[in-house]
Request: fold
Amino acid sequence: MADVAALKKTFEELYGAQSAQEIRVFHAPGRVNLIGEHTDYNGGYVFPGALTFGTTMLIRKRDDDQLGLASTNFPLRKQISIQNLVNREEDEWMNYPKGIVRELQNRGVRVGGYDILFSGEIPNGSGLSSSASLEVVTAFGLLTMEGRPVDKVEIALLSQKTENEFIGVQCGIMDQFAVAMGKKDHAILLMCDTLEYKHVPFRAGNISS
Reply:
């Protein structure tokens, strides 16, 4: 689990400590798939589970329409207007949270300005859904900060739509659904075309790949 105290110190070093606004902390796990590779985008059954590690997001309200985006995993850091968000190759990992903001705006959610620091424990390219974890934690955190209802199935769907339409990756729903709906000591039996699902008790113990 992330060292939140250390991350708060890093956040204040990046964005300053003199603010009346509270720093909030959110977390989303990674995921592993146990059964059903390549069947999610074909509408079949999958059997994923959430991991004990994932992506932590620290966020604080700003008084303008800017998004401050930084990560402990990448050197790239920027301040971006929340108006007219588009996918830019040079923005690299930032396109994922930008895409979530854009999708929330498309759904009528007015998103204000925020300073955000991400810290991921999932190795990039490991097949453990670092991008889905980043998308889900961003959506969950922003909806909470804006005082909007938090529906985890809807978060999974809007995260998938972000990946499909903003990022341009035609993934299925499995990754985002497993991250958003994961439950301790359980896997998820999910029918991808109907989103019918069931939490199934599952203890991995010391199993590793």
